[in-house]
Design a protein that fits this description.
mainly beta; about 10% helix; elongated; 18 strands; five-stranded antiparallel β-sheet; six-stranded mixed β-sheet; 2 helices
């Protein structure tokens, strides 16, 4: 009988452990949204890359109180976006709030509003390329502009959109005016000479790019960069940098 009693106790203890473990599971976030205490809505249709995503929401009066705090809007952006992972939105006196992030890349965007530990339902918005590519701007600078033979001239620039934000992972081609190889790509400078592609480089996460060219002979050369564009961005060309090579 004693053995049977011990087995029964072990059996009951096991059940109790399972019940306790189950009671400490992390709550399902979706279950926190059933009350509708925080609402969040987005555009009813797809947006175009480069447009603003209009979000609006409201906090229920039972949560708002006399000393309201900011709403945390959690952002899940597609790969390559420069958007923040969250922002703070200050509600109006009636509990409403708004936020309009820029859809800087295409793909599915996700948004949630968080207030006093309660989440809104998640809003999904898809951004796609528009029929008109976004305008771009391309900068270029080089140093030194009066190098000597044996020096290396370093070039840098940035590819940006119409709002001044850098565009990542785009190919930039650098071009020279030259009639023959050598002298940092060519000597015997001639303004009427044809341009030719001397190489290419990609933009980093900030839209910046870098390259360098060695100086092996005296003379003058023009350097410029181009971006050929794609379905989302228009082509652009940098200013021309003139390099004069001394003895």
């Amino acid at each position: 009988m004693r053995i049977i009693s011990v087995l029964v106790l072990f059996f009951l203890a096991g059940i109790l452990i399972i019940i306790c473990a189950g009671s400490h599971e992390e709550p399902d976030r979706d279950s926190d949204n059933k009350t509708g205490l925080i609402t969040l809505t987005g555009p009813s249709e797809e947006v175009t890359i480069g447009d603003r995503i209009s979000l609006s929401g409201r906090i229920d009066d039972s949560l708002y109180g006399s000393s309201p705090s900011d709403v945390v809007i959690l952002i899940s952006a597609p790969k390559g976006s420069h958007a923040d992972t969250f922002i703070l939105a200050t509600p109006a006196s009636n509990g409403t709030f708004k936020y309009s992030p820029l859809a800087d890349v295409g793909g599915e965007w996700g948004f949630e509003a968080l207030y006093t530990g309660i989440y809104s339902d998640k809003v999904h918005v898809f951004a796609s390329p528009g029929s008109e590519p976004k305008k771009t701007a391309l900068t270029l600078s080089g140093w030194p502009t009066y190098p000597q033979i044996g020096d290396t001239v370093s070039f840098k620039g940035r590819l940006t959109d119409g709002e001044g934000k850098g565009i990542a992972e785009k190919e930039i081609v650098y071009q020279l005016t030259s009639n023959r190889p050598g002298c940092m790509g060519g000597c015997g400078f001639d303004e009427s000479a044809d341009w030719y592609d001397a190489g290419s480089v990609g933009t980093d996460i900030n839209g910046e790019y870098f390259f360098s060219l060695p100086v092996i002979e005296k003379g003058k050369v023009l350097v410029a960069t181009t971006y050929e564009g794609d379905e989302g961005y228009s082509p652009s060309t940098s200013r021309t940098v003139k390099i004069s090579v001394n003895e």
